[in-house]
UniProtKB/TrEMBL annotation, chain A:
It is found in: Nucleus. Residues 116-155 have a biased composition (Low complexity). The lineage of its organism: Eukaryota, Metazoa, Spiralia, Gnathifera, Rotifera. It holds the Pfam family Med31. Keywords: Activator, Nucleus, Transcription, Transcription regulation. GO terms for biological process: regulation of DNA-templated transcription. InterPro entries: Med31_sf (IPR038089), Mediator_Med31 (IPR008831). Transmembrane segments: none annotated. Coiled coil: none annotated. Residues 115-155 are annotated as: Disordered. GO terms for cellular component: mediator complex. Belongs to the Mediator complex subunit 31 family. It comes from the Eukaryota. This is Mediator of RNA polymerase II transcription subunit 31. It comes from Adineta ricciae.
TrEMBL record, chain B:
It comes from the Eukaryota. It is found in: Nucleus. Transmembrane segments: none annotated. This is Mediator of RNA polymerase II transcription subunit 4. The keyword Chloroplast does not apply. Component of the Mediator complex, a coactivator involved in the regulated transcription of nearly all RNA polymerase II-dependent genes. Mediator functions as a bridge to convey information from gene-specific regulatory proteins to the basal RNA polymerase II transcription machinery. Mediator is recruited to promoters by direct interactions with regulatory proteins and serves as a scaffold for the assembly of a functional preinitiation complex with RNA polymerase II and the general transcription factors. One of its GO terms (molecular function) is transcription coregulator activity. The keyword Iron does not apply. One of its GO terms (cellular component) is mediator complex.
């Protein structure tokens, strides 16, 4: 009974895919990244290989399963050694989390502005080109590459 | 005298001046003849002088008519000049608007060209796919905050501890932790009852079952068993047990 779940997962390809999908999406959580960094997961070469392996989620067939696209941006960043080292710093992770939430709220405000003022609008999309947080701006670029409806273009 | 009046190069004012000078001379001559008939400076008699005076007076009257016409023309000219000024001002305003419109249009055209280039470069997807994916992203608020979000709301743009614990990883780790606790319990019981040594390498046996099966090496699973409980310490055992029997999270219903 104890090994049932584990053996089921290891034997069934769809369950293993589900495991990969879950893990890659948890990478969007900066607290979890801090946790992994503090327990020296990022020093394990096997783990780094696994992160490189997870890049397959950026392909067309697999990206449609990802519900938290910011995770893919963090996955890209995690390929860099310097970022992995910085993640051990809790204040840095709190900063990332703050910026994430601010960008999340800013998009909501912009969406509401566009919806309430359909005639007068800038020609730029909600790419947030004028924000200063590099991590979230690239995230929004990647999400916009996938879907345009969230940017609320009233064309 | 006719050469004065019919000379086109002389202005009306000059003509009037010359006529008045001649009339003045003739008057003086007439008066001097009348006053002193024996002493005359010219050969003309009074009658001739008077005729000349009357002729010049007629010409003067004509010139005054001409002056009135010219004044009317000047008034018309001034009106036209004012209209021209007004039109000039309007034209300058229109020119400013035109320049502004040119700027706006040129930037709009440039951006439209950029967009078209992007569209040509882009990989096409059926719109239904895009809309379905956009709906998925919007429904879990992963990119845009919900409208009623306030400080203190637990929702986030990433999977939270509750979501992680409900998923497959969380369930695996809970199961392994339970197994470890059970083994510790049985170990302590057996130590109390029989005082035999228990093999404490059971955790390593568990980890050996997580051998990598793909070319990418997976992390050693026993290290992940405690992540859910370590960092998210406020564990609710009841909710975890109820979630064990639940199906996969609603995030993955497309699989």
């Amino acid at each position: 009974m104890t090994d049932d779940l584990i053996q089921t997962v290891m034997r069934d390809p769809s369950q293993r895919f589900l495991l990969d999908l879950e893990f890659v999406q948890t990478l969007a959580n900066p607290q979890y990244l801090n946790f992994l960094a503090q327990r020296n997961y990022f020093k394990n070469p096997a783990f780094i290989n696994y992160l490189k392996y997870l890049l397959y989620f950026k392909e067309e067939n697999y990206i449609k399963y990802v519900r938290y696209p910011q995770a893919l941006y963090f996955l890209d960043l995690l390929q860099r050694e310097q970022f992995r080292q910085e993640l051990a710093n809790a204040s840095y992770c709190r900063y990332i989390e703050d910026q994430q939430v601010h960008a999340w709220q800013r998009l909501q405000r912009r969406k509401n502005q566009l919806l309430t003022n359909p005639t007068g609008s800038s020609t730029s999309t909600a790419n947030n080109n004028n924000n200063n947080e590099t991590e979230t701006s690239n995230t929004q670029n990647s999400t916009n590459a996938i879907s345009t409806s969230t940017t609320a273009n009233n064309r | 005298m006719t050469e004065i009046v019919e000379n086109p190069n002389l202005s009306t004012r000059r003509k009037l001046d010359l006529l008045l000078q001649e009339m003045d001379t003739i008057c003086r001559e007439i008066i001097s003849q009348l006053y002193n008939p024996s002493f005359t400076t010219s050969n003309l008699n009074a009658q001739t002088l008077i005729d000349m005076f009357i002729e010049r007076q007629n010409y003067l009257t004509q010139q005054i008519q001409i002056v009135r016409q010219q004044q009317e023309l000047e008034r018309q000219l001034q009106i036209k000049r004012d209209e021209i000024l007004k039109c000039d001002r309007a034209l300058r305003c229109l020119q400013t608007y035109l320049l502004q419109a040119v700027q706006v249009l040129s930037s709009a055209v440039y951006q439209a060209r950029e967009k078209l280039a992007n569209i040509r470069r882009a990989k096409t997807f059926p719109s239904e796919t895009i809309i379905r994916y956009a709906h998925q992203l919007a429904s879990c608020y992963s990119t845009v905050a919900p409208d009623n979000w306030q400080q203190g709301d637990l929702r986030r743009p990433y999977p939270t501890n509750i979501d992680m614990r409900r998923g497959l990883l969380g369930r695996i780790s809970e199961q392994i932790l339970q197994r470890q606790q059970q083994q510790q319990f049985t170990t302590s019981n057996s130590m109390v009852t029989s005082a035999t040594v228990v093999d404490s390498s059971a955790p390593q046996n568990i980890s050996s079952s997580y051998t990598p099966v793909t070319t990418a090496v997976r992390p050693v699973k026993h290290d992940t068993t405690s992540f859910a409980l370590d960092i998210f310490s406020s564990t609710n055992e009841d909710t975890n047990h109820s979630n064990f029997s639940s199906s996969d999270t609603d995030s993955y219903d497309d699989l």
